[in-house]
Amino acid sequence: MRRRISDNTLWFWVFVGPFAVGLALFTYVPLLWSVYLSFFDAHNTVSPTDFVGFDNYTAMLRDGAFTSSLGTFAVFSLFIVPATYALALALALMVNRTRRFQAFFRSVFFLPAACSYVVAALIWKLSIFNGVRFGLANTVLGWFGADQTAWLSTTHPPWYWLVIVTVRLWLQAGFYMILFLAGLQRISPRLYEAAAVDGARPGWQVFRHITFPQLRTTSVAVVLLLVINAFQAFDEFYNLLSDARGYPPYARPPLVYLYYTALGQGQNLGMGSAGAVILALIVAVVTVFQARWFGLGRKEAD
Amino acid sequence: MTISRRTLLGSGAALGLLTACGSNSGRGGGGSADGKVTLDHWYHQYGEAGTEAAVRRYAAGYDRAKVSVQWRPGAYDQQTAAALLTSSGPDVFEVNGPTLDQIQGGQVADLTALFDGVKDDFNPAVLAPKTYDGKIWGVPQVIDTQFLFYRKSLLAQANVQPPATLDQLVDAAKALTRDKVKGLFLGNDGGAGVLGGTPLYAAGLSLVGADGRAGFDDPAAARTLGKLHQLYADKSLLLGAPSDWSDPSAFVQGLTAMQWSGLWALPAVRKALGDDFGVLPFPKDGPNGKPSVPVGAYAAAVSTRSKHQAEAKAYVKWLWVEHTDFQEDFALSYGFHIPARLSLAKKAAKLREGAAADVVTYATDHGYAQPLLWTPTLQTAYQDALNRIIKDGASPDNELRAVVRKANDELQRVKKR
User: Fold this and answer.
1) What is the mean pLDDT of residues A250-265?
2) Which SUPFAM superfamilies match (chain B) (predicted)?
């Protein structure tokens, strides 16, 4: 018995050890180091000596570019969270009802999730939404006599949001569709049978009174994941809007701004770290409040 | 099949050894079997065919050390900035700088001694931003410059003269804008990124004044930048082109009648359009204005984290100071740049006729380099303001007032360090 425990412990560490070390080395140490750096004047150094207390935090919170980046996030999440939620749910309902080629449609809708954000952003930027007459969107609009539009350069109206939101919608709707599909398959058929016996009409009435309430836990998880993912938006923004000379001030989400502050030529690692800590705190607070609001983890019977 | 503990651990150790043998840290380890030190030399990826082979050939010819050239695509400035924080970075690296923070942070070595006897032969416009505290921190390799290309036939068709003032440029761009051709291409952001301080210099101002404060605290600055919004509001600007300002594709494909681009684009433009093009500096604006041409130079710098600083400096001197033939070859055999050495620029045959000769004249007479004190923080603040002025029609006065305030604070900060 003793030998068995010893073997189990060894195997545990053989398999878990490397990952635990990796996690500590590449996640927790940098995280703590970042918190440490945020209290120092750390221009071009990761081992600073000039302690500045909360100066980096106050400077970051007073920095109009940082606060406007939080506003950009808010606008982005207002677009992307409901849009992805609705599309993913619609796709899941559609695929779930399909009797033929179900696997085919699931694969087709899920496939974009396997595509790189960078590649998708470049296709959107260079082929579909470029601003000249041979861009796909402009070609189609040209058939109806519309002028060519510079989708990513026009701020009034802000067409760039259309490009940013559609690329992410295309990329992530399939993944959330799979989550909803799993949720739909957990709903007991007996509920639908009981509803039918009670005279509920198939379609909207059944969806409203049976399907949607039964998807509550899935919906909460999906919305939480969508909000956190929106906070972490970087790839498509960066690849759609940056050029060799920088990045426009509009549609600059927090991570892009922190990237330029800490990893751009500025190399202000103290300010960048302070911004990262502020952002992490905001994500944590929003997530906790959101979870409590939706009653995440509460028993169904409650 | 069962795997015993000994087999598993043995395999792990073997795997570890193999991994160690195959690891490439990007640094040669500092020595080689023949007793020579190994120097790592990083370059950013040039788009011009033959450039990489050329720098590898130069490096192979150095016999006092083994030089390992790394050709690094992607976000090169970010890569070097991060690598300089660690001991696994380069010994010698190409840099679009070095920046003031890199110099003040002690990340780059003083290379002043390498210029003994030849300092006056380096173009002073590009040597100035490499100089801080009386010392030189990078050896300029070649000079890049930007200017305005215009299509002669399209201007003739529209009965437009090549613009000599900013007002004329605004009018010309409007007159040249047709159904399928735009008048002017200043980049997909409308010029905020690439123009930078150029319009300010065209108005007779500067980014940083002689007194070390913001050099554009003047009503003329707002007036000039407001005219850039006029170009945008007139819909004279090409926006959203598949390739940006640095690539001449939009110009040679006929999407625009005029384009702001660089000297490197000249061979491609000449090949596509023959003689049907001309070049201009950014036109002057206002009574104190003068034509304006930005110049810049990538430089070779030595990392202070290098274990072989002395050897690295000797190599840089051999490569970019003593071997003028390498500099000329690098500047003119693959892409199109002006050698940083004045004597080479004067005698280079390819730069003595046509548009190339005009560009060399503009760069010599009207060239300005972005000051070393103009830090990335200021660059971002100014570029954001320019973006809002051009695209949103924001008040140039208000935007510039905020940038002036920020600039004076930041300039104060960097002077204190």
Assistant:
1) 87
2) Periplasmic binding protein-like II
Q: What is the structure's pLDDT at A5?
A: 62
A245–B84: do the CB atoms touch at under 8 Å? no
Q: Distance from B304 to chain A by nearest Cα, in Å? A: 13
Checking if the pLDDT of A169 tops 70, the result is yes
Lowest mean pLDDT among A81-90, A185-194, A196-205, B354-363: A196-205
- Separation CA A70–CA A58 (nearest Å): 16
Closest by Cβ to B107, choosing from A44, A153, A245: A44
> What domain range is A254 assigned to?
34-294
Asked if B58 and B66 touch (Cβ cutoff 8 Å), the reply is no
Question: What dihedral angle (degrees, nearest 10) is formed by the CA atoms of A197, A202, A204, A210?
Answer: 40
Q: Class of the B38-141+297-365 domain?
A: alpha beta
Residue of B78, B237, B251, B370 best to disrupt the A interface, most CBs of A under 10 A:
B78
| Distances from the Cα of B41 to the Cα of A130, A263, B9, B68, B314, angstroms | 38, 21, 39, 6, 13
CA-to-CA dists, residue A20 to A29, B20, B294, B357, angstroms: 12, 21, 52, 63
> Which member of A153, A155, A266 has the closest CB to residue B377?
A266
Whether the pLDDT of residue A97 is over 90: the answer is no
Half-sphere exposure of B359 (CA within 13 A, CB side): 30
Q: What mean pLDDT comes out for the span B28-43?
A: 75
Fold of B145-295+375-416: D-Maltodextrin-Binding Protein; domain 2 (3.40.190)
The yes/no answer to whether this complex scores an ipTM above 0.90 is no
Round to whole Å and give the CA distance between B320 and B300.
8
CB contact under 8 A, A265 and B101: yes
Q: Are the Cβ atoms of B102 and A154 closer than 8 angstroms?
A: no
Q: Which amino acid is at A208?
A: R
A48 is a domain residue: yes
- B105 and A44 in contact by Cβ < 8 A? yes
* pLDDT above 80 (res B22): no
Q: Is residue A299 part of a domain?
A: no
* Interchain pair A44, B84: CB under 8 A: yes
Q: Is B304 on the interface with A (CB under 8 A)?
A: no
Query: With an 8 Å Cβ cutoff, is B81 touching chain A?
Result: yes
Of the candidates B212, B182, B186, which has an alpha carbon nearest to the alpha carbon of residue B198?
B186
> Which chain A residue lies closest to B95 (C-alpha atoms)?
A265
Q: pTM of the prediction?
A: 0.84
Interface subset of A 179-198, CB within 8 angstroms of B: none
A142 touches chain B (CB under 8 A): no
